[in-house]
Prior knowledge:
Blueprint: E1 11-13, E2 43-48, E3 55-58, E4 61-65, E5 73-75, E6 78-86, E7 89-98, E8 103-107
Parallel strand pairs: 2-8
Antiparallel strand pairs: 1-5, 2-5, 3-4, 3-6, 6-7
Amino acid sequence: xxxxxxxxxxxxxxxxxxxxxxxxxxxxxxxxxxxxxxxxxxxxxxxxxxxxxxxxxxxxxxxxxxxxxxxxxxxxxxxxxxxxxxxxxxxxxxxxxxxxxxxxxxxxxxxxxxx
Length: 115
């Protein structure tokens, strides 16, 4: 798990190993061990969207491209803001209240920006 001092949430990619992706907005060069799996207490969120190359943010911090989250997104229990961003679409976000060890499927469609 990569975690910044004072970061409000632990975020990990569940069931997938990715090298060089900043988790929780932390640069890959930060100190501390990297973790790409979930702990027993983490909630797992499975995101689906009409824009597969959208960028996923949790609590304002970049996590990964949506297409890289095949195994889901492990997040500490609590209230979190999940956002999808793409330059050709309006951002989409929602606030999730996640319980310990919860598994949730979430659909977040995005509207295209007209020229």
